[in-house]
Design brief:
With 245 residues, the chain is mainly beta. It has helices spanning 4-14, 158-162; strands at residues 23-27, 30-31, 35-42, 52-54, 58-61, 67-77, 83-87, 105-107, 112-113, 117-121, 127-137, 140-154, 165-171, 178-185, 190-196, 201-207, 213-217, 224-232, 235-244.
């Protein structure tokens, strides 16, 4: 049985603001509110100071009252020598973490904003950087929505990797003692990785090519939000959110 004080610590320190109060983040009809997004790109396409740009996210005020929204960047785990920056209602330098007051966006009920641009310069660095972007109601700092973006610069294109591996369902979700992860891995080495909201790896489980599912024990994990990733040949293919009760 999980300790009450552990639940309290996780709830207050890690999950505060996790559940949005009327702000959502979607892309291509998929809801990523308080979840994660894997941004793959071939590093050879972005040499020198060229930046990979991620856009298409829709920020929406789903409440019945107007909100004044600002944007915050949190670098969770960033590779050395890389740079990143964002555009909200204006574009900022890599040194800026929070949009300026003059760029706060007033959003009426049901209003949407599509002008978010996220830029990442790999500078020749292979591997993964984790950056969380938060959209915050300035009148209520606990009223937020966030997305954790996993930038992965690979020497192999995502199309080639995705053709041989796929992360499917997690069941049950929420889970308590065990979670079954369904996937497809046809070749190469692979593993399942569980991370917490801070991007810290909690568990790595090797899997065999040709297998279809694995049962992961999670009874020792404190209650909270986690992310389960499928890694194939050293690359993160897909990530799904897991709630541990």
């Amino acid at each position: 049985m999980k300790k009450i004080f552990l639940l309290s610590i996780i709830a207050l320190a890690s999950l505060r603001g996790v559940f949005a109060e009327g702000i959502t983040i979607t892309k291509d009809a998929t809801d990523y509110t308080n979840g994660s997004f894997s941004a793959w790109f071939d590093i050879s396409d972005f040499p020198g100071n060229n930046a990979f740009t991620l856009n298409g996210f829709i920020i929406k005020n789903t409440s019945t009252t107007p909100k004044t929204i600002r944007m915050i960047r949190q670098e969770v785990s960033v590779l050395p020598l890389t740079e990143n920056y964002f555009c909200w209602t204006a574009c900022y330098s890599p040194a800026t973490d929070t949009s300026e007051v003059i760029d706060n966006l007033v959003m009426a009920p049901d209003a949407v904003f599509t002008g978010v641009f996220l830029d990442y310069k790999p500078s020749g660095q292979l591997g993964e950087s984790l950056i969380r972007y938060i959209f915050q109601n300035v009148a209520d700092l606990n009223d937020t929505a966030s997305i954790l973006v996993r930038y992965n610069a690979s020497a192999t294109s995502i199309k080639e990797i995705s053709s041989t591996a796929k992360l499917n369902a997690l069941f049950p979700n929420p889970a308590n003692n065990n979670v079954t992860v369904n996937y497809a891995v046809n070749q190469g080495s692979a593993s399942l990785e569980i991370k917490n909201l801070l991007g810290q790896v909690q568990r790595v489980t090797p899997i065999v090519a040709g297998s279809k599912s694995a049962n992961l024990p999670i009874a020792d994990l404190p209650s909270g939000i986690y992310f389960v990733s499928l890694k194939s040949n050293g690359n993160i293919i897909d990530t799904k959110r897991l709630v541990v009760n």
